[in-house]
Protein: 5-formyltetrahydrofolate cyclo-ligase
Amino acid sequence: MDSTLTRISASAAPFSVNNFQKLHVLSSSSSTRISAKRLFCSDPKLEITSTQRPQYDAVLDEYAFEAQRLRLDSKAREAMAETSKREMEADTEDDPKAWKWVIRKRIWDFMEARNFAQNPRPVHHRIPNFVGASAAAKNLAGLEVFQNADCVKVNPDSPQKQVRFLTLSGGKKLLTPQPRLRTGFFSVLESNMLPPNAINEACTSVGVAKYGRPIGLDEKIKVDVIVIGSVAVDPNTGARLGKGEGFAELEYGMLRYMGAIDDSTPVVTSVHDCQLVDDIPVEKLLIHDVPVDIICTPTQVIFTNTTILKPQGIYWEKLSPEKLGQIRILRELKSRIERETGQKLPCGPSEKLPPTAQRRKK
Structure:
């Protein structure tokens, strides 16, 4: 393969729904369980029998859920586009984020121009879906650490859908976050929780809401492998760039707080070969940036032997009040730690979030 296609260096150049019906989870105790044999959604074609949901009963308007998710994702991408433009146009060369946006834009533009991108498109301001994502997932599934894993945490983005499928079809627990942590925290899925032939659906956002078991900060769980999406990654150092919102880092930090992972937990990413770069300056990475141990592409598996230190938790002094205001589970964690320690946690500097990025506090 032409090296210009496998690595880009610095020199290379539906409908709207007004009322969103949330997922309602009822207690599994005998006093509150629904006794009816069938649960009804707004569309009779989407009925779920109670025997299909042994863990809990739920009512989910799937069409409204997906429409709301797409609407919020669109608003978030618009916000990130505005943020990236503002930071790339910063007056100072020492802006701590501007250089990241230069690399991200180069990758996104290249993938679109060479047609390496797959839907959803355009891939800008996303973890980009790519041609060969299934082949990369197959390489990932061949890893010894994956084959020996009981529980795998996988990001909810499109290019890792096949990884989620292989996790569930392999009889493993799938731990996946709610997109942008906007509606909750993590959900756990297992193949034995699912009705027949539902694994593929369970790998989607709707499927996670429909079949997953939501967990909280007190869940006792051990994660054996973390699969993380990337926009760009350096195979020589393990340095990684996400899409710029920082949710992978927050998820990692919260799992550290829960004791679900530690420094030895392998972090794996699946990307297209063209997302391999050699110009991520390790010295400019922030303390909460998560490095990767293994990179899986459609054509190769790379062990980075990274020496970059992994985050030890949430770095509250880096977290802006605005970001904290977007994520309920983070506010709950902060309040809990402050109650337990009797000390107020620090807060990061304020940041200007575009209007489209604002979320109503719950």
